[in-house]
Amino acid sequence: xxxxxxxxxxxxxxxxxxxxxxxxxxxxxxxxxxxxxxxxxxxxxxxxxxxxxxxxxxxxxxxxxxxxxxxxxxxxxxxxxxxxxxxxxxxxxxxxxxxxxxxxxxxxxxxxxxxxxxxxxxxxxxxxxxxxxxxxxxxxxxxxxxxxxxxxxxxxxxxxxxxxxxxxxxxxxxxxxxx
Length: 179
Hints:
By secondary structure, this protein is an alpha/beta fold. Helices cover 44% and strands 16% of the residues.
């Protein structure tokens, strides 16, 4: 019996502290519980693995995002669902992913900067405000919001990460006929 083709990439993008990793972890857990083969790639982990923890200029970020895209493509071709959590807010990346990755599903977490500053788990916004950090996406480093993401999740205090994961899974599974 031939195994169903599930090759796809769920690309979760948004600014730092928008909830990308949390959402990716919830989605990954749910898909695994459905007995689907899933690999999660987190931008912070990949930066460390690739030795790029101090590369935050636009060109460095763009090059790194292309590495993430090609990695996700390669893994998905092995009949896997790849869940990627990364800032990577560049029109070049969004375009490349759409043109090169079959079953690409883009999620944009649209969270107001005031909420991101309130969360700030890595102290990025605080360090930026104190002048000890630059090249912060969405502040002094311009970003490109996705033009037509498959799903935009706008911040709403009433929605939990679990609520958002349910929205993503519903859309993704029905789009890919995996439900």
